Amino acid sequence: MKTDVPLQSRLSDRIDAARDDLVALTQDLIRIPTLNPPGDNYLEICEFLARRLKGTGFEVDFIRATGTPGDSERYPRWNLIARREGTQAGQCVHFNSHTDVVEVGAGWTKDPFGGEVEDGKVYGRGACDMKGGLAASIIAAEAFVAEHPDFAGSIEISATTDEETGGFGGVAYLAEEGRYAHVDHVIIPEPLQKDRICLGHRGVWWGEIETHGEIAHGSMPFLGDCAVRHMGAVLSEMEEKLFPALAEKRTAMPVVPEGARQSTLNINSFHGGLDEPDADFTGWPSACVPDSARMVIDRRYLMEETRDEVVGEIEAVLNHLSETRPNFRYDLRELWSVSPTMTDEDAPVVTTVSKAIREVLGKDPEFVVSPGTYDQKHIDRIGKLKNCIAYGPGLLELAHKPDEYVGIDDMIHSAKVMGLVLIDLLAPAPNPE
């Protein structure tokens, strides 16, 4: 394309001109309620994105993660990979975004799926985590292709499922199918802020503890053995010993926010006694001593720790109670676990995004690590690709909160950064004069 205007300037101007389109695209994505669990509207959002990306020359591939956790005929795990080939051989740059969002929760003053625009922000569940990032990557790729159609290599944009529940029906499945074998660079537009590069994340270990008792009539609890009381002893032991010990563990990883630079444990759920009744049932529970109590725990750990140490700390709590508390019996089950991961600061994708941030924002990026895992874990562990980061618009502290939003200017700036990355990696030759 013959022009006196540098490619970088043309791309920036095109992204500015696409501001209304970027907002509308983000709104359209928010208005498709892809709640997970259970996995609503995964196919619908893939079909929407396919129509959009086919219109700008991308070839699209629908992939169902058959047999993965949560996949069923009612809630099929559909993923999309869109690919645009250049006119000559070169590298592959892949933008990966998850389409699923968490439950709405209480406390909203906006319509969670309305995509309302106010004060330069787009509101809605998934606005920052991470449909705003997905929209920004699409605008960036479309602008780059429009201004430099004769690029070298290829661009891929994927829309994947189930990141909020581990990613096993999304990126993990695609990695196992070899869908990243040809990819050179991966950018995941998670909301870590437009001037940050996220190098990785802490490790995670999810487990279920079950305590056992003996059922009896609730009016004569001395004839039974209350499993909930046994679980209460577990919680007491954790409060007294485990939580303080975890608070003393610190990491050299640049985890944000500051509170996440220690080891943490969250009680994800607790259930004891009778199963919860059907929503249509309006009666009272029967009088029984609970013979089972279950607790799911979410343990986030540091690069300086190992999975075996994490499990050993939980086992120490339970074994101590087995030795000191009469009739204490338990089962411990691992649900899933992932080791910490962190890309080197001198990795190609890191240096390229750093350069783009300096050009767009006029400042050096901050290197951070996420407190929670995201799909980099599968690209690293299964896909064997270390050249992967998270970079995208949005404030991390808004994720999963009521009145979640993404800033429009932040999306514009992030799209420009992504566009410059494409120029550096896929159009490295000097601009024609």
Task: Describe the protein.
By secondary structure, this protein is of the alpha/beta class. The protein has two domains: 7-201 and 340-426, Zn peptidases (Aminopeptidase), CATH 3.40.630.10; 204-338, Alpha-Beta Plaits, CATH 3.30.70.360. The protein is 33% helix and 23% strand. It is built from ten helices and 16 strands. The protein has helices at residues 7-17, 19-30, 42-54, 127-147, 171-176, 227-247, 307-324, 348-361, 376-381, 408-426; strands spanning 59-64, 78-85, 88-98, 117-118, 121-123, 152-160, 185-188, 196-201, 203-212, 264-272, 292-301, 329-338, 341-342, 366-370, 388-390, 405-407. Helix 1 (7-17) packs antiparallel against helix 10 (408-426). The longest helix is centred in the N-terminal third of the chain and has 21 residues, at 127-147. The N and C termini lie close together (10 Å). The relative contact order is 0.19. The model has no long low-confidence stretch (mean pLDDT 96).
